[in-house]
Amino acid sequence: MFTAFLYRLRAEGVPVGTSEWLALLRGLAEGLATDLDGLYRLGRALLCRTEADYDAFDIAFADTFRGAALDPAVREKLESWLADAVERSSDELVDPAFSDAQLWEELLKRLAEQTERHDGGNHWVGTGGTSPFGHSGRAARGIRIGGPGGNRGAVQVADERQWASYRTDTTLETRDLTVALKALRKLQREGDWALDLPETIDRTCQNAGDIDLAFARERTNQVRLVLFMDAGGSMAPHAERVEQLFTAADEVGAFASFEAYFFHNCPYSWLWTDFEAGERRPTAEVLAELGPRHRLLFVGDASMAPYELFTTTGWGSEADRATGIEWLRRFRRRCPASAWLNPDPRRWWDHPTVSAVGQIFPMHELSVDGLKDAVAALRKPV
Amino acid sequence: MSGTRFASTADYVADDDLVAVVDAAVALGRPLLVKGEPGTGKTQLAHAVAEALGKPLLTWHVKSTTKAMDGLYQYDVVQRLNDARFGDGDVRDISRYIKLGVLGRAFSADSQHVVLIDEVDKADLEFPNDLLRELDEMAFHIPETDETVRARHRPITLITSNAEKELPDAFLRRCVFHYIAFPTPERMTQIVRAHLPDLDDRLLERALDRFFGLRKVRGLRKPPSTSELLDWLAVLVHAGIDADRLDEAHPFLGVLLKQERDLVAVRKGAAGTVW
């Protein structure tokens, strides 16, 4: 049972190593966990390294110690059935004498029979109602499946998955983004002058004991971050996530400078500093300011009509009338430390303009993990 | 500690999850890493542990300039240089210029201490790694005097982090980890009761409603935390605000939200976007 738990944890993505596992076994030997609750607490404290692991731990724990593992496909199907809880009060309770094992057998049987979504009632798996299966129901004992734990009548706490929102592969917390962005910092000796003690001692020795002070510059961060954000129509559903990234970048505060520009679909000859107020700057001017210390992050879905990327737009000089893709190439040439974050999931990237942009900039998903990858790539010397 | 603090300390001891992780950390001799939003009482936990176990507490407040060495010992070379130059005291005795840090003192103490390494994430990214060996072996060497300071009583180590920086894996592997979730409305009621025992029930209920509603507004740069809630309630009581008024208005919103942008966003009725 225990080793099965270990492999279940690893399968869910909790990075449990031998030393953590031995620590757990040692803890058990010391009598730190005497029941399932204790095991849950001890295991979580020793095997999880961050709150992002809690949800995966809950899943693994629930699956292993409930004695029955639900097929993920079945689970997902169930969860979509149960997505909307129907809160109903009822005082008729079903027979509370079901044992856990019986409950599971019964559940699997009913799942096999049931083919559609079900709310209320007293037999089918669904929301509300008095069947011991499903959630928000009023049965005295039962197995809760997905949904919010309204009445907490369920057998397993772990199944409530209260930590689900802490997963880094799905959520985008401003704080996590800030952490990820901070890794971009690069410290260099260009700050204020400070006493260099080892050098002072060395020189003093050379100087026959007469104190000779030496100074060196303190290390400061010289990285300049520039964010380019697509504010086009297809980006509307992602506005909140883009806003979070902007907030995070603004909050880091550790960069030598931080600038943000907006564009529509693709940067052409103008970049907006404020869309609403219509404040904008010529792209060529922004481009000219970029140097080796700049790191560029583009945020956009990169999906547009092909002519928006590949044909000439705008008026003015020859240089200003470049295609969107040419403007992107200019950015990349000027500043190779650049990356593109796409709010659309990777499986949608099979699109002519997305792959064209992806050939210029390394493209990552706009998520905490995606940002981490992008930052790691930007840190590499180019 | 004031009288109200004691109640919240007793509160801590009652929390099953925390008791279990503290027990595990003590029994396994591993540092306990506590993470959580500001205002969830991470630092107070160390005080509660020290008090409950009846052991003295040594606190090491980590800053952005803190080096791992600062917690072990410092060799006051400038003083020695000065003494050598101007002839004050015996400069041949290096141990006179060795000053033990928090961990050094805890190691050399003749009873077990509780050590709090507060806000470990404030320091440089490498800081936790530099402490690995010392925390593992509970000993360190002072090359200047060729002395080894070995813990006579393994200290109970608590480390707090606000998750400003990610901590290195090797460090995390050696810690017992606990994340303090933001208090639920029920627990928040207990916390407020401990601090403001005379608060009107209806006012508290309405205020908590507004508070948790405010925390749900997406895109706030700094969502209000426990300490802001307590300040806000104190202001409401002081100004004699009626519980019913809280339904229509947000009086003294500035106490809860410290950023101008958040205030504007909430007053507009939604968190604004940048465009």
Structure description:
The complex is a heterodimer of chains A (382) and B (275). Chain A has 382 residues and is α/β, with parallel strands linked by helices. Chain A has three domains: 2-166, no CATH class; 187-220, no CATH class; 222-379, von Willebrand factor, type A domain (Rossmann fold), CATH 3.40.50.410. Chain A has 14 helices and twelve strands. In chain A, a hairpin with a 4-residue loop joins strand 8 and strand 9. In chain A, helix 1 (2-12) packs antiparallel against helix 4 (54-65) and helix 7 (174-182) crosses helix 9 (239-252). Chain B has 275 residues and is of the alpha/beta class. Chain B folds into two domains: 3-180, Rossmann fold; 185-267. Helix content of chain B is 48%, strand content 15%. Chain B has 14 helices and nine strands. Chain B has helices spanning 3-14, 16-28, 42-53, 68-72, 77-86, 102-108, 127-137, 169-173, 185-195, 201-216, 226-239, 245-248, 253-256, 260-267, and strands spanning 32-36, 57-61, 73-75, 98-100, 114-118, 139-142, 147-150, 156-161, 176-180. Chain B has a five-stranded parallel β-sheet with strand order 2-5-8-1-9, with helices on both faces. Chain B has a two-stranded antiparallel sheet with strand order 3-4. In chain B, a hairpin with a 4-residue loop joins strand 6 and strand 7 (147-150). In chain B, helix 1 packs across helix 3 (42-53), helix 1 (3-14) runs antiparallel to helix 9 and helix 9 (185-195) packs across helix 10 (201-216). The longest helix of chain B has 16 residues, at 201-216. Chain A binds chain B through residues 17, 19-20, 23, 26-27, 30, 32, 37-38, 41-42, 45-46, 48-51, 54, 162, 166, 174-176, 178-179, 182-183, 197, 201, 204, 209-211, 231, 239-240, 243-244, 246-247, 251, 260, 262, 274-276, and chain B through 16-17, 20-21, 23-25, 27-28, 30, 35, 77-78, 81, 84-85, 163-166, 169, 172-173, 175-179, 181, 218-219, 221, 273-275.
